[in-house]
Amino acid sequence: MSRHGKVMVAMSGGIDSTVAALMLNEQGYEVIGITMKTWDYAASGGSKKETGCCNIDSFNDARAAAVHHGFPHYILDIREEFGDFVIDNFVDEYMAGRTPNPCVMCNTHIKWRALLKRANAMDCGFIATGHYAKTREEDGRFIISKAIDETKDQSYVLWGLQQDLLSRTLLPLGGYRKTAIRQMAHDFGYPELAKKNESYEICFVPDNDYRGFLKRNVDGLEEQLKDGHFIDKDGNILGKHKGYPFYTIGQRKGLDITFGKPVFVTGINPENNTVVLGEEDDLLKDEMIVSQLNYIKYPGIQDGMESSVKIRYRDSGTNAFLFNDPAGVRVCFHNQAKGIAPGQSAVFYEGDDVIGGGIIQRKQYS
User: Fold this and answer.
1) Burial code of 168-183, b = ≥16 C-beta within 10 A, e = fewer?
2) CATH of domain 219-278
3) Count helices and strands in the chain by DSSP H and E runs
4) Cα–Cα distances in Å, from 159 out to 206, 249, 333?
5) How far apart are CA 189 and CA 183, in angstroms?
6) pLDDT(258) > 70
7) What mean pLDDT is predicted for residues 272-285?
8) Does an H or E element contain 355, and which?
9) Regarding the domain delimited by 284-360, which CATH topology (the fold level of the hierarchy) does it fall under?
10) R_g over Cα of the chain
11) Is the pTM of this model over 0.85?
């Protein structure tokens, strides 16, 4: 009988999830390792072999670590449920002129639910991952907060986890810096993990060519978009573009158009296949609307609540006031925020704690 009960650990074969599983095993949990196959990249017609979490080497690395340390390991095929939601959402968002965050959607709607379903079937009290973030219970709420190592912090991509999931989640790496995790890999006898390349690509677009992915997965896309134009904020035509889904807010490089000064994508209009170009100042906004909300630290917000708001993964955060709005939450920045991209996640922080988050909408006040 284990000291702490049974925990199902998501193991990708990489250093973080492997060390997380071995830490919990050493702490006295009865560990069950599970590797989720989310995507068969060969089926997409890409130019690169599978990488990251979906290749046979990663499966073997995860299994070998589990076998060596005496706990069971299973492979879970969730390609169908992953594809139906995450990939369809990814395509639909770009076609709607927004910039999706598939990792957030996967964590929120697929991975944690898939883990919890299998954990229940195998009488596991907990599920765990190698994400860099911390969890705790306070006043009956289960709270996510930033990892000690802010250079690796992943709390931003976990804002969508609901309370029933958080109440069962262990995140053992949140209290450690990456350097310590690398040393642990050495100490556990896996020095090669510390040298293993980490994958930062979208798992189903490992060549980082999301435009190519869209072309392969949307019938007749290039023909449909061939007559699109760049325009300025007054609607004047500036030139032809390659298709509005192939651009993101804030983009400066790869526009294939010159004006003798830097220009940026400041707007995307799928209705008329136009992409708005402007100067850097045109990217600055005072306010935005966030919907599809999930609250973590509190059941909701009070009007005028102050927060640091992250609008992208590597964002350091911008201080703002939050207000309830019929469309969701209205975020009023103290200082203008740059490059707000509809479809991306906005995450509200109180200190290191995640208040909640949601999806940035196209409707913005200013």
Assistant:
1) bbbbbbbebbbeebbe
2) 2.30.30
3) 11, 17
4) 24, 22, 20
5) 10
6) yes
7) 96
8) strand 353-360
9) Elongation Factor Tu (Ef-tu); domain 3 (2.40.30)
10) 22
11) yes
